[in-house]
Amino acid sequence: MSKIALITGITGQDGSYLADLLLSKGYSVHGIVRRVAYANMEHRFWRIKHILKDITLHSGSLESYPSLAKIVQKIQPNEIYHLASQSFVGTSFEDEFSTLNTNLNGSHNLLSSAKDFCKNTKLYFAASSEMYGNVKIYPQNENTPFMPRSVYGIAKLAGFNLGRYYREAHNFFACNGILFNHESPRRGPEFVTRKISYAVARIKKGHQKKLKLGNMNAKRDWGHAKDYVKAQWLMLQQEKPDDYVIGTGETHSVVEFAEKAFKYVGLNYKDYIEIDEKLKRPAEIDILIADCSRAKKMLNWKLEISFDNLVAEMVESDLEFVAKFSKS
């Protein structure tokens, strides 16, 4: 009998790649989506359009314990992957209340629902490198102190601690994945990497002249989402729950990402980028870089997609998208 997996955030970047992975392993895949998503399926479901016939979707709200409890009780998942959140850090500076409500209360509701109605399930929580903030320890591992500098990071840290609490107080199988930045062609356009790759494609095709960016010197540990969802799955295949840092161990600046993206289409980034002070965060994080040696050792996890290949794939995908959109 196939395993049953429940994914929150299944329509997002990680959720869609994870669904692909689990289906390839013979899982019965279920996802929770907000009811409002059905009103604009073309926009909301574009990442999972190719697998809609292979998965089961349930209308539910992270902000409602009864809603989540009903779904968990009904399908009795073997594994739960909690990926859904308000995930754009910039928005958390503008809307603190909804970020906390969705990211903190949503995590609590799901953990409680699972504990109450599906005690033997295994749950993965998508924590974040944003929890480290501007800690002056490089690279960051599972023992590095957390000093978040955004409401998003604060909410993720609270969810992280909730998972640990359920693990220790209720003997519940809850894992936290401290994932560093991971990108792909399925990344939302509001994130800087996709903003760059999409702008490069539009500029190359003659539909755009300039690209406005904020802090060009910010450095991040960027990997590919496909590699990272494999780590999420591996965490729930272990005998005991634990927390793991997932990253590449390399750091690259925004300017380096932009330089490589423009170079891929034969352009010089210096000719097209403008700095917009309004795009800079109120509290910036200068550098994040992962020490993922523990995940490599304990999970036997490894990276397969390089930074250069990630940038090339994103630009190539957006070139195809812009060309297709131009013809329609």
Question: Can you offer a commentary on this structure?
Answer:
- The chain is α/β, with parallel strands linked by helices.
- The protein folds into 2 domains: 4-183 and 222-246, Rossmann fold, CATH 3.40.50; 192-220 and 252-285 and 306-327, Alpha-Beta Complex (UDP-galactose 4-epimerase, domain 1), CATH 3.90.25.10.
- Helices cover 41% and strands 16% of the residues.
- The chain has 11 helices and 13 strands.
- The strands form 4 sheets. The chain has a 7-stranded parallel β-sheet with strand order 3-2-1-4-5-6-11, sandwiched between helices. Strands 7-10 form a two-stranded parallel sheet.
- Strand 5 (122-128), helix 6 (151-169) and strand 6 form a beta-alpha-beta unit.
- The longest helix is centred in the first third of the chain and has 22 residues, at 96-117.
Features:
two-stranded parallel sheet; alpha/beta; 11 helices; 2 domains; 7-stranded parallel β-sheet; 328 residues; UDP-galactose 4-epimerase, domain 1; Rossmann fold
Tell me the layout of helices and strands:
Layout lengths: L3 E5 L4 H12 L3 E6 L7 H4 L11 E4 L5 H11 L3 E4 L6 H6 L1 H22 L4 E7 L22 H19 L3 E7 L2 E2 L8 H13 L6 E3 L5 E2 L2 E2 H11 L7 E4 L5 E2 H11 L8 E3 L17 H6 L8 H21 L1
Parallel strand pairs: 1-2, 1-4, 2-3, 4-5, 5-6, 6-11, 7-10, 8-13
Antiparallel strand pairs: 9-12
Helix pairs in contact: 1-8, 3-5, 5-6, 7-9, 7-11, 9-11
